[in-house]
Specification:
The chain is an alpha+beta fold. The protein folds into three domains: 5-193; 207-317, Orthogonal Bundle (Helix Hairpins); 321-497, Heat Shock Protein 90, CATH 3.30.565.10. Helix content is 62%, strand content 10%. The protein is built from ten helices and eight strands. It has helices at residues 5-64, 67-86, 88-91, 99-118, 131-203, 217-278, 287-315, 330-341, 364-382, 465-475; strands spanning 326-329, 350-353, 359-362, 388-396, 405-408, 425-433, 479-484, 490-497. Strands 2-4-6-8-7-5 form a six-stranded mixed beta sheet. The chain is rod-shaped, with a radius of gyration of 56 Å.
């Protein structure tokens, strides 16, 4: 069983503390040795100072003949002897074999010769009478100087060794700590990296169960929590997909009902007029009208069939596919839409400004249906006295969103200016009315299914007309935009990509 991350981190922390403790102990031991060397140096320095002082008083006695100087020299010699007896272990490292005994014997002779000098009057002193004192004193001071020099060399060598040893220990400790941290990083970061790789498919929608076989307890607990979350997500995804299918079915049914109302109404009107003619006597019947009524009913039946086919195509979620199109004069699309819509509008007097023989690759009947929806929307939104203007032209692509305009469709994702600075153009079918316009807060919701504003003058809309317009333009690879005109009223524009080969 793999240990937990907490256990691994605790082990790394303990190892770090142990390494630091060992480094501290080594540093303390080197400091203790260096301190002992300083104590030893102090003893040797005191011996040298005492030997120099006794020789100084000895020489002053030779010059002045003052007995106090002779006594002071004797006192310094006895003090040196006492120091020697008390600190032999400190002096031993710097003294060669026999030097401590020689130093002690020289001090003894020096004290003895000083005692003999006390009995000799100063005027009677000769060079031969002081030779033994001088010889013993010189031997004492010489040995003290040699020991001081050796002590300094030993202290310097010890300092050099301590420096290199400390550097080596610190490097070793740093290496061990880095190794310890590297091990800890492997114990923590590698499982995290493996977990990130295992979680990667989740972002792509593949809710595969995670397996953590040889990882720490915390990672296994995390894997169990993630797997539980994945189970919940998968269940919710299934519910969401089912809900979306139901919503798509609802949109399809509502769309069929919305779009079939008009052709079914026209069929009913045509059949009523045909029945009215049929109920007359044969001599009073207008055969031409009856034929026209039957033809209109048949045309509206075909239109209803095409509407159902179009809505079924959209319900199949043909995302990214284009409708089957063919080069078509937009004037034909406009005339067909006007013919379909004039019987449905309260004010069928529509002013048309048509472009000069503009041709685009379109699916004619779906585009006509989108234009009919815009005309019907303008008629319903602007009221019975609405003035509707329909304009077809080649225009520069606008700034799609912002500044009081909202756009939707693949073409709206294209920058209006080419990389070389040239302004791009498209084919625009624009429907504007003289109504109250569109509230800015409604613009980006108008093309959502079942969205209805509370500012409309009518209650006939189902909220699907503009949604179907947007879907048709998306299938054409174009765009639909909405804005308010300079003089008021709403302006809806169907944008088609310009086919330069048409």
């Amino acid at each position: 069983m793999q240990p937990s991350l907490q256990h691994r981190i605790r082990n790394a922390w303990v190892a770090t503390v142990v390494i630091m403790a060992l480094v501290s102990l080594f540093a303390a031991e080197r400091f203790y040795r260096f301190e002992a060397g300083l104590d030893q140096g102090d003893v040797v320095a005191d011996l040298l100072r005492d030997s120099l002082e006794m020789r100084r008083h000895e020489k002053r006695y030779y010059v002045d003949g003052d007995a106090a100087d002779l006594q002071a020299a004797s006192d310094y010699a006895r003090t040196s002897l006492d120091r020697l007896n008390q600190a032999r272990e400190h002096l031993a490292p710097n003294a060669r074999p026999g030097e401590l005994q020689a130093f002690e014997q020289a001090l003894g002779r020096y004290i003895e010769e000083l005692s003999r000098l006390e009995t000799t009057p100063a005027p009677a002193l000769t060079l031969s009478s002081t030779e033994d004192v001088r010889s013993a004193g010189s031997e004492v001071s010489s040995l003290a100087k040699v020991w001081v020099q050796r002590e300094r060399e030993a202290l310097h060598a010890s300092l050099q060794r301590s420096r290199w040893q400390l550097v080596a220990v610190l490097l070793l400790a740093a290496g061990l700590m880095l190794l310890n941290f590297w091990w800890l990083a492997r114990q923590v970061l590698l499982p995290l990296q493996r977990m990130v790789r295992r979680l990667g498919p989740i972002a792509e929608g593949r809710y595969r169960q995670l397996e953590f076989k040889n990882d720490a307890l915390e990672f296994r607990a995390l894997a169990q929590a993630v797997n539980h979350m994945l189970d919940n997500i998968e269940q919710r995804e299934r519910k969401r997909a089912h809900t979306e299918r139901l919503m798509a079915l609802g949109v399809l049914v509502s769309g069929v009902a919305h779009e079939l109302n008009n052709p079914l109404g026209n069929i009913a009107s045509s059949l009523d007029l045909y029945k009215e003619q049929l109920e007359r006597s044969p001599g009073q019947r207008d055969e031409a009208r009856m034929t026209r009524y039957l033809r209109q009913a048949r045309e509206e039946t075909g239109r209803a069939h095409r509407i159902v086919s179009l809505l079924l195509d959209h319900a199949r979620d043909r995302s990214g596919e284009r409708l089957d199109c063919s080069p078509t004069a937009l004037s034909l699309v406009v005339s067909g839409a006007l013919e379909w819509s004039r019987r449905q509008l309260r004010n069928p007097d529509i002013q048309v400004i048509d472009g000069a023989d503009l041709i685009a690759c379109v699916a004619r009947e779906p585009l006509q249906q989108a234009l009919v929806n815009l005309l019907r929307n303008a008629d319903q939104a602007a009221g019975p006295d609405a003035r509707i203007l329909l304009r077809v032209a080649r225009e520069p692509l606008p700034a799609w969103n912002g500044e009081g305009r909202y756009s939707l469709g693949p073409l709206s994702e294209q920058a209006p200016v080419a990389t070389d600075g040239r302004r791009l153009t498209g084919l625009a079918i624009r429907v504007s009315d003289s109504g109250p316009g569109v509230h800015p807060g409604d613009m980006e919701h108008l093309f959502e299914p079942f969205y209805r504003t509370n500012r409309r003058h009518d209650s006939e809309g189902s909220g699907l007309g503009l949604y179907l317009v947007a879907q048709i333009m998306v299938a054409h690879g174009g765009a639909v935009s909405v804005e308010n005109g300079p003089a008021g009223g709403a302006v809806f524009t169907l944008w088609l990509p310009e086919d330069r080969d048409a």
